Amino acid sequence: MAGTHLQAPRIIETVEVLALRIRERFPRAGLNEVCGHLLSFAQRADSRSRQISRPMYGVRLASIVLALLFLGLFVFVIKLVRLPDQPLQASEFIQVLEAGANIVLILGAAIFFLVTLENRVKRDRALRAVHELRSLVHVIDMHQLTKDPERVLSPGHETASSPRYNMTRFELCRYLDYCSEMLALAGKIGALYVDDFTDSEAIEAVNDLETLTSGMSRKIWQKINILHVADGAHWTEEAGSNSDSTGQPPEQIETNPDSGPDANSDATM
């Protein structure tokens, strides 16, 4: 059911295209290396997700053999038990009953451990993969942390410790948009691990990861909206000053945001 499941090759292709877009516009930015790590995560997620969803026949066989061994040992011990000819006292009967109940509980816990061993191994692999993605997500967020629209819209006096970058308003908008796309793709890569693995703890970890990426993306889009509002005010002011005698603003020419003379900008972090 390709229409209801995430397709790992499509996610990998999307990350590859994003990496090319970042490299073409910001060839010397550190974001290129981060996107390269994201691509590596996507490529590994393809094989790791299939490994997680694949049945572990070796673990299943070992679990069944050990469970049968425990059951056989329990039956053997029961057969060796010899009840006395005389009736048991109440206290003795309670002791025997308690000992038997403890043995049954221990046997049941051991069998439950073996039966759920495969699921716990898969869960551990999924949680470790999601944790690695979470660490990368925080790295992506660090790259946009100092990219403040105010420094482009109303630059002030720089100090010796001020972040150094040379971006136009358009370039900053592109940079922030790339960070937002990377966060969204990180969430989709995490979802690959639970696409065919319906473990509650793993699903909860992936949901937490997507909540984290969504929150970071909202912060980024607040910055982008500030730039868009400033662009709108700039166009309104320019149209008013360049209007013709009829009071109508000049026609605006639509451009492709990913094309133009700044397509090979070498802005850095």
Would you write up a description of this structure?
By secondary structure, this protein is mainly α. It folds into two domains: 2-55 and 123-151 and 167-233; 57-82 and 89-117. Helix content is 71%, strand content 0%. It is built from eight helices and no strands. Helix 5 (117-144) runs antiparallel to helix 7. The longest helix has 42 residues, at 200-241. The model is unreliable at 243-257 and 259-269 (pLDDT under 50).
Question: Would you report the number of β strands?
Answer: 0
User: Mean pLDDT across all residues, rounded?
Assistant: 78
Radius of gyration from the CA trace? 31 Å
Largest sheet: none
Count of helices? Answer: 8
Q: What spatial form do the alpha-carbon principal axes imply? A: elongated
- Low-confidence runs: 243-257, 259-269
Helix content: over 70%
Strand content: under 5%
Q: Gap between N and C termini, in Å?
A: 42 Å
Structural class: mainly alpha
Query: What is the ordering of alpha helices and beta strands?
Result: HHHHHHHH
Tally of separate domains: 2
Topology:
Layout: H1 8-25, H2 31-53, H3 57-80, H4 90-115, H5 117-144, H6 149-153, H7 169-192, H8 200-241
Helix pairs in contact: 1-2, 1-7, 2-5, 2-7, 3-4, 5-7, 5-8, 7-8
